[in-house]
Amino acid sequence: MGVQFDKSEVNDKSSVNSKQANTCTWKELALHNTEDDCWVAVDGKVYDVSEWLNKHPGGKDIILMSSGRDVTNLFQSYHPLTDKPSQVLKKYYKCDISNTEFPRYVSKSPFYDTLRNRLKTYFAKNNLDPQSSWKIYTRIFATYAILFATFYLTHFTNFFNSTFLSIIFAIIFGCAEALFGMHILHDSCHAAVSHSPMLWRWMGSTFDYLIGGSYFSWIHQHVLGHHIYTNVRNADPDLGEGEVDFRRVSPYQRREWYHRWQHIYAPLLYCLLSVKYRVQDLDVFTKRLNGQIRVGPAPLFYFVSYFVGKTTFLFWRLCIPMLFSSQSIAKIIGLFIVTEIVHGYYLTINFQVSHVASGLEFMATPPPPAANSEINEDWAILQVKTTQDYAHGDPITAYLTGGLNYQVVHHLFPSISQTYYPAIAPIVVETCKEYGIPYMVLPNFISAVWSHISYLRDMGLPSAPVLSVPVTPTRQTRPVKHNKEA
Predict the structure, then answer these.
(1) What's the pTM?
(2) Is 272:347 a contact under the CB 8 Å cutoff?
(3) CB proximity list for 165: less than 8 A, separation 6 or greater
(4) Phi-psi category of 123—alpha, beta or left, where left has phi over 0 and alpha has psi -120 to 50?
């Protein structure tokens, strides 16, 4: 279950906890999550940014979705090349925060500041806009074009009346759907294309209408959850939240007898992701939860996009072919299933190889509502240690993965356009070497997939480590690195 708390436990919404002068708890902070009453916490201080919402250059959507919570690491990683936001924020100071909902990264290193300054110099020296380039717009156009073209080829061409060719086109169409998620959705979620909040909103919401998912839900899972708490059990939504799971990917999960064969059966089930995320996102609008991540009130735009988007998706994917193509209903449904199987595989494998693999680190935190958990590591350094790259210098892999073959770079600088990753990756690699931080880069995608499969195999072995999740809120959680079995 996600985080739930009784609002009656909290005093008046406008109050500040009187136990300590000028402080509030995370539960009090959580109540301030509307456009008229918008608070955020950064580095232990709470700010009332209600007046700043409509002035924010990045638009009000992302602040509203982040409101009522600690956004320290989001604030750092989405303003990496300027110190101006920190100066602006000081004007809106409200109080200090006395505890936290999710773990704090208590270790601080000059690593990220050094890296930020080097990237500032790179973009200034080359007169480049970190969020915009002609290449990214070319990729966006290509991704939309491929999606519609492969839909047409799957259902409205009849080369030699060949079912085999229709299946081939359906497979390519499934890849196109996944590319849509890794380019259109992903870049929009991270504000990594242009400086227009309106473009992010509308482009991201085409994911609702054309793919049948939810842009609003993905921001909560991916941006507000996974990117802050990467590989942290009970905080990262991508690691699951139950003690029993069909996979064991963290040493803090209990090992079941069937995990012995998870490296065989789990990849076979990855095709179900496209079904899972289209159904699971309903919790965001009904239970207002995404895993452990709380969800604030959904603006009308996203509420409409979600429900109308589901209908539109089914209409264009199934009804249009049934009404206007010469294919039988059975064939249309069969091709739909093929497309979605490929879509699920493509997305899942690309996501898993970056974080669930041999040699990466995993942590755990007490499950909510425990507070004041700490991770004795620097957030930026941990992004490197929980992530791996592959196929550096390969432009084809970069397009086919939406730049996620440079996942370390992406996690450190999510709002920088993916088209710059190949150029700035050497800067990140060199800085990691200077600070003694291991940076994992595999030669190609196949080796990354094998690393993931090997990790699943090792974690299912009877000899695999089983660690206890910390139960004391104030205990510092130490990262655990998984090493391959000899």
Answers:
(1) 0.91
(2) no
(3) 159
(4) alpha
